[in-house]
Amino acid sequence: MTKPPGKLLPLVAALLCGAVLAQAAEPAEDPITSAAPAVKASAHAPLALPAVHQPAPAGPRKQQQQQRPRQHRTSTTATPDDWNLTKHGKVLYLTFDDGPQKEWTPKVLQVLAKHQAKATFFVLGREAAAHPDLVALTRAAGHRIGNHTWDHKMLTTLPAAKMRQEILTGVRSKCFRPPFRETNAQVAAVAASYHQRQVLWDVDTLDWSKPGTAKIERAILQGARPGAIILMHDGGGNRSETVAALDSALTQLTRQGYTFHALPC
């Protein structure tokens, strides 16, 4: 029996709705997810991570890092020796020849230390070789050492080769003093070839002749003037007069305002 069309439409709609609901209730064979696919790790390669944006490296920092202080290079140019001895005021230059001598050199050093005086010792090579401890003691006390040849020969009377040997075998120094003050252009030239300046003296106390303590002292006092080089001896014989005269003279000269320096040897 055929139903009228007006009652058929609601029935069709109900059937279609039921079919749709039944289809939605069944599970889907290929579910769709919105998650990103998983990253698979290789069995031999390190884990590949997604690229991460790295900030650009910063430019050089200006004025942020403390700069290291610059190191100033020490000049290797040697300061020239000052031989303008008269420009330093009331300064005397005491010198002693023919040592070192085991008895008198230490006594001279004691007097110099007592008066805070510095001096220059022109030593013989043979004596320095025999008493190296005294040479070291003299240097340690702040005094200077000069070359007085090997064994005090009169150089101007020697053959050229022997004269050269006398100078060469003396102690190493920047200063040279010829024995007996006997010198000439050839002697000075040989000394200069060894970079040794020839140094003589202004005041000879004649203490080598043992004239007595008073005469030696008088020679020192009368010869004293700014820049004067004074000659005495710590070797070559008994120097008790020299030691006594030195002590007395330095006492008086210190009161007069003098100081006592070593030569730049």
Explain the layout of strands and helices:
Elements: H1 5-25, E1 91-97, H2 104-114, E2 119-123, H3 125-130, H4 132-140, E3 144-147, H5 160-168, E4 175-176, H6 185-193, E5 197-198, E6 203-204, H7 213-223, E7 229-233, H8 240-255, E8 259-260
Parallel strand pairs: 1-2, 1-7, 1-8, 2-3, 4-5, 6-7
Can you describe what's shown?
By secondary structure, the protein is α/β, with parallel strands linked by helices. Helices cover 35% and strands 11% of the residues. Strands 1, 2, 3, 6, 7 and 8 form a 6-stranded parallel β-sheet that branches. A two-stranded parallel ribbon has the order 4-5. Helix 2 links the parallel strand 1 (91-97) and strand 2 (119-123). Helix 2 (104-114) runs parallel beside helix 8 (240-255) and helix 7 (213-223) packs parallel to helix 8. The longest helix has 21 residues, at 5-25. The protein is globular and about 50 Å long.
Tag the structure with descriptive keywords.
alpha/beta; two-stranded parallel ribbon; 35% helix
Unreliable residue stretches: 1-65
Nearest-angstrom radius of gyration?
51 Å
User: In total, how many beta strands?
Assistant: 8
Euclidean distance between termini CA atoms? 150 Å
Helix share, percent: 25-40%
Structural class: alpha/beta
Overall mean pLDDT stands at 81
Largest sheet: 6 strands, parallel
Q: Count the helices. How many? A: 8
Order of helices and strands: HEHEHHEHEHEEHEHE
The percent range for strand residues is 5-15%
- From the spread of the alpha carbons, the general shape counts as globular
